[in-house]
Amino acid sequence: MRSLNLSLFLLLLTPVYSAPTSPITFGIDLDAVLERSSPTFQWGMLDDANNYYPNDGYGDRPQEWVNSMFGANGDLGYMLYSPTKNTLRLDVSKLTLWDDRTPDMDDYVNDYVLDQPRMGSGYFEITWWGNSSSDLPRKVS
Amino acid sequence: MDLFKGVTNLSVLTSTSGEGFDLTIFANADLTSENVIVISATGTGGGSPPDITFVPANPNNNDHDSYIPNPPPTTRRTNLDEFSSLEEIFQPHLKGTVHATGILRVEDYNLNEQQRTTIYTSLSPVLESEDAASEYVRDMTIGANSTSYSNLVSGRRGGERLLIRDAKQT
Q1: CB-based contact (8 Å) between A132 and chain B?
Q2: Residue A119 falls within a domain, yes or no?
């Protein structure tokens, strides 16, 4: 019986240690399948007079987080949008960072929104500048 | 956006003469230090990379009088070598704990001699001290920077990553 238990134990371990990367394989080309759903965004196009116009068939740029592009890796995440036409904003946050106020704290107000909000960490501001032939803001040095 | 690789590519034209930059965001930047997102900007058409600055969250950004904000964050900058610098933002909490944001910035040129800015960013979990939070984000960002840039571009696939994580849990 003891030998049987040992054999079963080793049998259970076998797939884990024999697989080079993962014991799970797909019979499909996941890259190609997902490629069909990979979104493309385009905005801020210029018309013949070098003016920006929002009704170019693609829509205006995402100006707020509610219509941002977003990505994540299961732990960190980001939201990307364009508050002005020469800036991008990349908000970064972490899954486990919450403003976790508990009843033992003086500032606990027994309100889910106030006591348990996602804690923001900050954002990257990505800015580019115009030159003499552009209507973008010039860099002030 | 490439959903399989977790990569976002942007091409930005900043002038009608073709100057601009490419911006790439890697969500799954490094298999060995998962808590890293990488941003890479390269000038194109004779253009330069954009200015990229990090703005720490304002803990007092709340309009409720009853809310007691966390203390203000502090920032520490360290030059690591000629091309790279590390910025650490420490956010203390009311309970005495802290979390940190690490931003490793590398300024160099790619193989086509185009000016490039690469930023490795990591967020620590809530930890007991500033030193512990600093050690965490330093390990993550500097560790991710030790991999080659070509590996960032070609070697990171979100699907494989999830399979490995699932296998470990089971």
Answers
A1: no
A2: yes
Report the alpha-carbon distance of residue A32 to residue B26 in Å, rounded. 19
Full DSSP string of B94-149 = TTS-EEEEEEEEEEEE-TT--EEEEEEEEE---BS-HHHHHHHHHHHHHHHHTS-H
Q: Which two tokens stand for residue B141?
A: 């960002």
The count of structural domains within chain B is 1
**A75 lies in some domain:** yes
Supply the range of the domain harboring residue A81: 2-127
pLDDT tens-digit series, residues A42-99: 776 555 565 655 555 556 778 888 889 888 888 899 999 988 878 999 999 998 888 7
Contact A126 B52 (CB under 8 A): yes
Q: How many CB pairs under 8 A join A and B?
A: 168
CA distance B69 to chain A (A): 9
Q: Does A124 touch chain B (CB under 8 A)?
A: yes
Q: Which of residues 127-156 of B touch A (CB under 8 A)?
A: none
Per-residue model confidence (pLDDT) at position B121: 94
Q: Residue B168 falls within a domain, yes or no?
A: no
Q: Is residue A109 domain-resident?
A: yes
Tokens of B38: 């990488």
Most A CBs within 10 A among B2, B5, B8, B23, hence the mutation to make, goes to B8
